[in-house]
Amino acid sequence: MSSEEVRPRVPGTVRRRIAAAVVSFATVAVVTGMFTTPVVADSPKTVRVGVSSSGLTLDGQPWWPTGLNAYQLATDWSVNFGCGAMVDLDAYFGSLPPNSVTRFNAFQALAVNKVSGEMDFGPMDAVFDAAARHNQFTIPVLSPQDSGCDDGLFKSRDWYTDEWKVANLIPGRATMSFQDWMHTAVDRWKNEPSVAAWELVGEPEPSLCTDAACNWWTRTCPSDSAQVLREFFDTAGAELRAIDPNILITAGYVGGGQCGTAGDDYQYVSESDFVDVLQYHDYGADGVPLPGDQWNGLARRIEQAANVGKPLLVAETGELAGSCESLATRATNIETKLTGQKVAGTAGALLWAFVPDPRPNECTMDIGPDDPLFDVIASLAS
Predict the structure, then answer these.
(1) What is the DSSP secondary-structure string of 284-345?
(2) What is the C-alpha separation between 33 and 323, in angstroms, rounded?
């Protein structure tokens, strides 16, 4: 066990309050001439997660993390409109294998008080604090492509070129632009010990809607989509890194041939200096480790990740169960899938998706607190 693991941690909210109090007191002191000692800033966290030529590292050692997507962790119905059911955060993080990774929604809407319309960081602070108490890791996703549980607006090509810098004010959900939210969120939580990587947009895709519903089968893909997406990562990623130069940035690609990352474009966008970890999202092909074709399949994505010298995290793996398949069968299929992916060169795997209230009588991808998949991720973690 490393010294970082046994070092007593001051909860994030306490650290934030101490830092604010120090700055406030120091300001008064300087103005009144009480003292001239330099102000002591909140010390940066020890950076534990890194990358190597072969994958991810933890405390300098090779690391193949497993974990879950738990998108609704920041839901607090007394504060925000939420996104899914409320979760007992200590029970959740305490149930995970050591050094697991949880990818969750850190959207602006979940940091806005639905009554006052003002920023309210309490529910999201609670997520980081609980993760730190249990020595677990997180990937905060700062915005979704389809804007579900956020501002409700699909991100088209224009958003990736300019509109991410423009405020779209929606009562109870948005008080600032994505650019300002990114700055606010990263600056607030950059010293949280749980943050393994930042994710700008989940499943980015600079396509164009052609109908009111923006159905995926009717969207068009502009010819410059890869360039637009690359420039977004170059620009927004540079701004994020200026705020937090230490934590990795992961690109939340679906990876299956979507607009902007189809075929060779996946590698082109991934060459950005501000993309450290690539992603692939794996649905269908139950029990098959390397799904997809020669152009957009997982085997091709692993090859492209190796070409750019960056790890590839399978950040979503989902399979239907409940009324359509037993939990035991799903666990066996996913264990087969992840074992093969690990051998093939992926950098870790996160399953879709934990919920505190699974629906066993429906055909869903729900992973409840007692699901046998918890044993699977524990056995495969390194």
Answers:
(1) SSTT-SS-S-TTTSHHHHHHHHHHHT--EEEEEEE--EETSS-HHHHHHHHHHHHHHHHHHT
(2) 71
Q: What is the pLDDT of residue 42?
A: 55
Residue type, 92: Y
Give the H or E element holding residue 199.
Answer: strand 197-202
What is the dihedral angle through the alpha carbons of 158, 147, 207, 349, rounded to the nearest 10 degrees?
A: 130
Q: Is residue 7 part of a domain?
A: no
Q: Is the peptide bond before 167 cis (omega within 30 degrees of 0)?
A: no
Q: pLDDT tens digit string along 86-103?
A: 999 999 999 999 999 999
Q: What is the pLDDT of residue 266?
A: 98
At residue 232, the pLDDT reads 98
Within 13 Å, how many C-alpha atoms sit on residue 242's CB side? 9
Spans of the chain below 50 pLDDT: 1-11, 13-15, 17-40
pTM listed for this prediction: 0.89
- State the Cα–Cα distance between residues 118 and 3, nearest whole angstrom: 39
Q: Is residue 13 part of a domain?
A: no
Q: What's at 373, amino acid-wise?
A: L
Specify the CATH number for the domain of residue 301: 3.20.20.80
Whole-angstrom distance, CA of residue 25 vs CA of residue 31: 10
Domain that holds residue 248: 44-380
Residue 154 backbone phi and psi in degrees, to 5: -65, 140
